[in-house]
């Protein structure tokens, strides 16, 4: 999942070298923390959060194949 989020984020932003993705286990689920440059935050979130929602939907669909519970946080 980490690689998937990292790939999607790097394709969206102007500064792909500043994309950072961490996987953390919290309360029985995996939390993927995505950090991008301040200037790219709007591109990752999108208008009314549409891009962020799309990223979460893709990750959720991919995680269902592995029977895991994954949450994406954009920091």
Structure notes:
The protein is α+β, with helices and mostly antiparallel strands. Helices cover 43% and strands 25% of the residues. β1 and β2 (29-35) form a beta hairpin. A probable RNA chaperone. Forms a complex with KhpB which binds to cellular RNA and controls its expression. Plays a role in peptidoglycan (PG) homeostasis and cell length regulation. It holds the Pfam family KH_KhpA-B.
Radius of gyration: 12 Å
Shape: globular
Order of the strands making up the biggest sheet: 1-2-3
The percentage of residues in β strands lies in 25-35%
Order of helices and strands: HEEHHE
Mean model confidence by pLDDT: 93
The low-confidence runs, each spanning 5 or more residues with pLDDT under 50, are none
Beta-strand segment tally: 3
Distance from N terminus to C terminus (CA atoms, Å) equals: 17 Å
What share of the residues lie within helices?
40-55%
**Sheet with most strands:** 3 strands, mixed
Number of helices: 3
What is the SS-derived class?
alpha+beta
